[in-house]
Amino acid sequence: MTTDLELTVDVPADPDTTWRAATDWARQGEWMLSTTVAVTGGDGRSVGSTLSARTGLGPLGFTDTMEITEWDDVARRCVVLHTGRVVRGGGVFSVSEAAGGSVFHWGEQLDLPLGAVGRAGWPVVRPAFVGGVRLSLRRFAEFCAGYRP
Prior knowledge:
Elements: E1 2-11, H1 15-22, E2 35-41, E3 50-57, E4 60-72, E5 77-83, E6 88-98, E7 101-111, H2 115-145
Antiparallel strand pairs: 1-7, 2-3, 3-4, 4-5, 5-6, 6-7
Helix pairs in contact: 1-2
């Protein structure tokens, strides 16, 4: 079973700044809750590059490995395939122009882990998951407002 999630946040920065901030993997932990990201293969800005995101506190957490399957600097769009043991499925983020700045789009099509247990537990976990992503996106908008590479 897969679950879809699409969220956006208005960002008070121009689209190019927002795109650079979104793809600054080493600094993603400054706005993404309890997460550190590293480029593990390639340059992190092209198809075939791989990323590793560790989410959690101390020993409690998981590693989300990803491969970039689409990259478009002009359209400001990145698509990843989550390849980890816990997180699997597709993810996409993009940036569009908006009055007064830009909009950051975050989407996931995740394959729920743990079979029937995952399907049964998702309605309980989903509100916290969505809440965490929403908080992270608000933090991202603030991060972009002062972003300097």
